[in-house]
Amino acid sequence: MIDGIGIDVVDIKRFHESLARTPGLREKLFTESECKVNEASLAARFAAKEALYKALSPEHGLHWHDAEVINQLNGKPAFLFQGEIADLVDGASVHLSISHDSGIASAMVVVER
Q1: Does the annotation count 49 as an active-site position?
Q2: What does the pLDDT read at residue 61?
Q3: Which end of the chain, C or N, has fewer beta carbons within 10 A?
Q4: φ and ψ at residue 94, rounded to 5 degrees
């Protein structure tokens, strides 16, 4: 049964400009591993985290580092959860799709229980 759906889109250029003008923002939003990808992929990972938040609709805010976007061996994106988010999604299946093209990054998350 679907418990939540979230979607988000990010303008890659505007996202890059935000990172450039705000010292420490990259480190606040992303894990060390996530910071190693290119700007378009980083924007897509931000969209994924925003979509996850929308799908979960938590009562309180979530910590950015508690949901890391990784690539599985087959290249498919997935979340690696820890902390408060891990407790929130315990027993759930979380599906993630991300994309970026023509200056826009997007992500969709479906949570099933």
Answers
A1: no
A2: 79
A3: N
A4: -115, 120
65-74 long-range Cβ contacts below 8 angstroms, 24+ apart = 65/30, 65/31, 68/31, 68/33, 68/34, 69/34, 69/44, 69/45, 69/96, 69/98, 70/33
State in Å, rounded, how far the first CA of the chain is from the last one.
Answer: 6
Closest CA to 34 of 60, 68, 62, 76: 68
CB atoms within 10 A of CB 113: 11
Contacts 24+ apart (CB under 8 A), 32-35: 33/68, 33/70, 34/68, 34/69
Q: How far is residue 51's CA from residue 111's CA, in Å, rounded to a whole number?
A: 11
In the chain, the domains with their CATH numbers are 2-112 (3.90.470.20)
Mean pLDDT, the chain, integer: 96
Note the pLDDT tens digit of each residue in 1-10.
999 999 999 9
Which pLDDT score, from 0 to 100, does residue 111 have? 98
In the set 16, 54, 65, 95, the catalytic residue is: 54
